[in-house]
Amino acid sequence: MFADVNLSTQMRNEFKRDTEGGIIDGIDFNVKVISMGPWPDQYGPLCKIPATLKACEDYFKDWYLSKKFTGQLRKLQYLYQFGKCIVATIGAKKPFQLETTIF
Predict the structure, then answer these.
(1) Measuring CA to CA, which residue among 37, 36, 35, 32 is closest to residue 22?
(2) Residue 38's domain spans which residues?
């Protein structure tokens, strides 16, 4: 488990460095990659995601497969039930943010 957390942090930092802070087409895309073995099974229901989020997933997958994390490549499976989305106002007198699940 601890190796997963360390490797995930290393990948996230490298991804942010390679993508100007993890921003893909205006979306702050943050991913945690862990192995399935030591963690409890997490299977969420299937859902249809927006094309912009799918584009982020595809970008991350291409980036991930291009890297060599000491032979630790894993099959990517997104668990949308753990995701969140922050929607912020633009141009309002007072800034507002709404945090919600993406599922």
Answers:
(1) 32
(2) 2-101
pTM of the model: 0.72
Q: What is the CATH number of the domain that holds 9?
A: 4.10.1030.10
Beta strands of 1-103 (E only): which ranges?
Answer: 23-24, 27-28, 84-88, 97-101
Query: How many structural domains comprise the chain?
Result: 1
Looking at residue 31, its amino acid is V
What is the mean pLDDT of the segment spanning 84-101? 85
Is the distance from CB of 12 to CB of 60 less than 8 angstroms?
no
Instruction: For residue range 17-45, list pLDDT tens digits in order.
Output: 888 888 888 888 888 777 766 556 666 66
